[in-house]
Every structure is written in C-alpha cells, then in structure tokens.
Amino acid sequence: QVILMSASINCEEFAHYFALPVHNGLNPACVFKLEGRPYAIEEYYLDDLKHILNFKLPSQRIEEPVIVREMYEVAVSLIQSFDEMEMKSSREEENRSVTSGRGSVLAFLPGLSEIRYMHSCLSDMPNKRWQLYPLHSRVTLEEQSSVFLTTVPGYRKIILSTNIAESSVTVPDVKYVIDFCLTRTLICDEETNYQSLRLCWASKTNCNQRKAFHEGEITITLFSIQRCPLGSTVLKIKLLDMGGPKALLATALSPPSIGDIERTILQLKEVRILLILLNQDDGELTFLGRVLTHLPVDLHLGKLIVLGHVFGCLEECLIIAAALSLRSFFVVPFKQHVDGYRNKLFFAGNTKSDCIAIVNAFK
C-alpha cells in the first residue's frame, strides 16, 4: 500500500496514472480529502487597491518576468497604507492604541538583488517604525533566525523573503502578504546541460499557498525530471538493465522530451561515460560510468573525484566536489557583499580561483 500526501498535489493526474485495470477499463486510485479549518483570508489584486492607493499600473509584457521600479513604489505605498488602516480601525474600536498588535508583513521577492532593492526603498522612508528582515539562503544564519524574534513594541515587522520558505518555515504573526508572483526556478539548459536559476512567473499553486503562508509549507510544483539533468537517471537505467532510456522515461508521469534524452546520451558519450556502439543508439556503460553511478554527486564532479585519485590529489578534489555540490560556504552578511568578496579573495591568494579558495578555506 502506497499513500501519497501533499497540500497541493494534482489528485486527478496521480489517480489516473496509478489506475488499476478492471474488466471494462481502468479504475483510478482512491483519493481521500481531509479538510482542515481554513484561515480567514482576504485576497486583493492591484486593480482592487486603486481606491486605497493612487498609482498607475506600468506596462509590462507577460513574456518578460521582471519587477519594474514602479511596482516597488506601489509595494512601499501599500505597506504605508497598513499603518493608516490600522490607525483608523483602532480609533473606531474604542480608541485602542495603534502600536498594540501591529501585524507583520511578508513580501515574496524572487531573489537577493530584489530583496536588497526593496530593503533600500523601505529604509529610505523617514519616520517609519519598521523592522526589516531579509529571509534568503545567502544571508547568515543569525540574520535568518532574527525573523522569529518578537517585534519591538510599536514597530511593524517586515519580512522580505524568497521561496526559501518552501522548506517548511512557519513565520508567526503574519497579517499581510505581498506577492510579486515571481520566482527563480532551477532550469537545465538544453545545449550545455548545466543548471541555472531563471526568473519566471510563479505558478498558481505557489501563489495560492503564499497567501496562506502561515498555514503550512509551500511546495514545489515543477517536476524535477523536467527541469534537472537526466545524466544520473540515464546511467541508473543502464546499470539496472531496464531497457532503453527513451522507452522507459516515456512512461513517467510527466516524461521529459525525447530531444532532452537524446542530448543527454550524446553528452555522456562525449565525456566517455557511455561507450559508442554502432548497433545501439544509447551505448553501453564504460568502467568510468559504472564508478560514477555509485557516487552521490553530479557526474562532472564525480569525474573530478576519479581524476583526483588518478593524479594523486584526491583530498583536494573531494573538498572541491563537496563544496560545489552545495551552496557556497562563504558567508556574506546582508548588504556586505564587498567585504564577503574580499574575504574570498584572501583565501584564493594570487590564483583568483574559486576552487583554490575553497580548498584553503576548508584546510
């Protein structure tokens, strides 16, 4: 018995994929829905806020996902309006103090550069009792932990976050969520087979969960098999002798394109991981390929480790491969990236090499 659980799973797609054959067709898998007690959420789009804010929507093309300067200004004005709305509400409700229970603001931005710009816009506002907190994987652990601190009485907490919140972070006392509906997604380039973060519009599922951020975790909606390198998957198929990669991957829930599979096989042959055979399109595993299937790293980094063993510098290659498998361990405090870069140059010495800096810093 296998049970799949998710707050944003496409139930119909999974149910039909795992359907069981019956005498007159297919019977979809069972779906159980457990309804929780929802939070009271009011959702507003920019058009709904024209009676609150005086702004003109800038022209923007759907093909070019970007945050223009005017949208930052709208967001700042919106945060200012929260103060005015709560002040008016407090006067209507028995003249309670405006400083009691000011709700926190959570703004979703796609990356660190956008967080820095928004932080600067908010910091430049005079006489505002705001506490600003960046929430990004590149900022220090101490800066990330400060998000959960209790706000100074009379101040409003403003959290500028990316989708780092997808790792089940729950921020208390969030009352307002501003979503720019953008995210940076890890995409595998078709030609080079390298991964990079690209700015794109957030999916509807992401946006729906962001508005209820404090309820639970945010889930990734893109299938990994469609946006990640297929090299390791193809090698596992060859190692387990499960047939042709193209035929097997075509049976996946959301299969990759035939072109991506063919490019992956060609690149594996170019680096001598697959052997070129005249009577077989996808080739056979070489000795190097069999070794790499047992290393839990990217194939290029695995080859680096093998060559490090061959040339007698295994320790250094292991350090470099481990560091390149993760985010940089060179900590850069928020808005101090110049000092962080200088520290990295110190470890690199005269080489100006990231890899040498990694080895020297580790040792």
TrEMBL record:
The keyword DNA-binding does not apply. Gene3D superfamilies: 1.20.120.1080, P-loop containing nucleotide triphosphate hydrolases. One of its GO terms (molecular function) is helicase activity. It comes from the Eukaryota. Residues 77-241 form the Helicase C-terminal domain. It holds the Pfam family HA2_C. Keywords: ATP-binding, Cytoplasm, Helicase, Hydrolase, Nucleotide-binding. InterPro entries: Helicase-assoc_dom (IPR007502), Helicase_C-like (IPR001650), P-loop_NTPase (IPR027417). The keyword Acetylation does not apply. This is TDRD9 helicase. It comes from Oreotrochilus melanogaster.
